[in-house]
Amino acid sequence: MNAIAAAAAMALSSCATAPQAPPRKAEHVLYEWYDDHGPGEVKVHIDLTEQRAYYTRGGRDIGWSYVATGKEGHRTPSGTYSITEKIVDKYSNRYGWIEDEWGNVTNGDAKPSTRVPAGERYVPAPMPYWMRLTSYGIGMHAGVIPRPGEAASHGCIRLPRQLAPQLFEVVRVGTPVRISH
Questions:
Q1: Which helix (H) or strand (E) holds 10?
Q2: Number of neighbours of residue 96 by Cβ within 10 angstroms
Q3: Neighbour count for residue 153 (Cβ, 10 Å)
Q4: Strands 105-110 and 42-47: what pairing?
Q5: Is 159 exposed, middle or buried (0-12, 13-18, 19+ CB in 10 A)?
Q6: Going by C-beta distance under 8 Å and a sequence separation of 6 or more, which residues neighbour residue 84?
Q7: pLDDT tens-place string over residues 128-166
């Protein structure tokens, strides 16, 4: 073996490595959207067991997403519904949080009736891209999905923030939504 080949082999087999940045933390893919905007009606199917929604247009798959539905004590009802109202910028009249004067959340699970300490304020929960399903306040909207695959809401169906405006654009009042286990 010549001297150059020996040096190269030694360098490649050395235990010392150059410092590297720590590996990036893996992130969940929260949705896929591939609507062709072709013919046919959009339909939504929400699977409560999987905590996923499936979207079709005229029977063709156009996407899927994780959702966060009702946690224990606030279950999302299964059944067949249709969208009855669409509002881009809605706030909850049932749930929110209490924050101090610096915006620090002091109670993350408050209601309008919750006592607000002096110097703090009640903030109603935002529900952007609201799509109402029931007369008693269940709907789909953009929101946090803290642990994909697990329920987390007060009964509504939270959608990934980047997907909600796209879905809002293609559904109409009357779009069918099926919720099942």
A1: helix 3-13
A2: 21
A3: 22
A4: unpaired
A5: buried
A6: 132, 133, 135, 173
A7: 999 999 999 999 999 999 999 999 999 999 999 999 999
